Amino acid sequence: MSAPFSKGQSVSEYLERYESNDLLRFLTCGSVDDGKSTLIGRLLHDSGRIYEDHLRAIEAASRVHGTRGGEIDLALVVDGLKAEQEQGITIDVAWRYFATAKRSFIIADCPGHEQYTRNMATGASHCQLAITLIDARHGVSRQTRRHATIASLLGIRHVVAAVNKMDLVGWSQERFREIERDFLEVCRKIGVGDPAAIPVSALTGENVVTRGANTPWYSGSPLLELLESIPVEGQSAESPFRLPVQYVIRPTPDFRGFAGSIVSGSVKVGDRVRVLPRGVETRVRRLARSEEDGGDLVIAHAPSSVLVMLEDEVDCSRGDLIVGGGGGAKAAEAIVAHSFEADLVWMVEAPLMSGAEVLLRQGTRTTNARVVRVKHRVDVDTLESHVADTLALNDIGRVEIEAEVPLAFDPYASVQGTGAIIVIDRLTNATAGAGMIRTGDALDPHTKRAHWETMPVATLDAPHGRSLVSGKEREARWRQRPLSVLLFGKPGSGKTTAAFALERALWDLGHAAIVLDGQMLRAGLSRDLSFTDEDRSENLRRAAEIAKVLNEHGVVVIMSLVAPDPIARERTRQLVGEARYLEFDCGKVAAAAVVAAVMASLHG
Asked: What is the pLDDT confidence band of residue 475, given thresholds at 50, 70 and 90?
């Protein structure tokens, strides 16, 4: 490797320029044999980032273990384990560092086999961008969708598809565009914004570091140019301060410091802070550091490791969380609760069952915990959620967990360092699952959740009395069977138009019907809700409870809501009753068909 010095540039100037570069951590993932290791090897080789002695060693290993008939096999740049070289696959996460004149990089080459999904999740948890390799011959695979979903759950905002082995499909533009459409649809479903796809050949190097001659129809950047230019989100100056306490250091009676790594925000001497979960407030007296290291700090930022001394003798120990106090954005409250919901990647063969007793690692605290229930599982083929009560090996799902002690945390989307969890098998002490906290305890004032577990009381048989008008009398009076009809779909799908058309048709035939529109509810009953998944679910729940009450009084209720969560729709069916429930996806069913189906049900 030759250092790319500019003419007249000194070694110190060269080092200073590279030290000032910002850092991008990215991983490569995808199915086995898609060419992940070869792509990284090509990226390092063609950018001049492989030392000559290393290159000679790779050439020698290629003659023994290579897959190219004795020619240099660039996959061996990162496949360092003997088993990897013999099998031509990646088993463990391989980390590599390199830099260009524009940016520094840390690469995680992740294994493609399903049995090593835990290794992929570990690598992804440290990265800001994911490159998913797609074999142009096979297209988007199940493992592609699984890895993209895990990357999205872990908060990776940039996902790039390197459509590899394009030379094996004749550099077909039509094939690339087909794969690109499938990949963009996957990203849309999992909520990844601004994805990109690049046609490459890791074997020949086209569109990896330099643009290839075989893709005149591709107007985008080569992979390295994209990696150098994609924006890297840094910590905001207003990020809340979070310091999980790892050790309490007390070498003398007069010195008591709390050591750990800042996972978010910053802290300076004199700042007010709080120690959670107890909530005791004090001030920072010192940010201690030895004279050999330059003496005490005035201010420290994430991800620095610090030793904090506090003004007061507060009760603080390993596992506690020191957060900003005194108000302001940097003092944004963390959640203190026993229970929470989390998205979990299950990593062992023994399935996870509702009620399982586990060890839970959150921040620097390890405690006993119980999986209250498995709520749903993600189908990696369709990327839809399905009701489930277990998670099998490599499944991704949402669970509700209750810890033995109160924990201080943030939703993973807000602060990754306090929102990540590890589930540990109590018998083997092996890591069984990795998760991302989504919501806090229902009693916590800083979180909202859909209260599906709170079942409404039947109004005709209320605790304080029974209605003197029976359900059969109401059906005879209104000459109809009560129904709850849910019309759902994306904004602009025509669900509200269909709802009022159905109401008009029922009215003209003498039926009693009422429309509950989602936006109408948000103007009054649901004005406290936003547009998060949880709040959309809660809006549907409130509409369903009203519908149940009106059904008991003999009225047909037409609900018009976005309702994107199939789990929430299934709970709506259970709440109002199977016999009284119909639902229609207005993105797929015309209004006339809805009217016909409801009429048939009313008089069937």
From this structure: confident
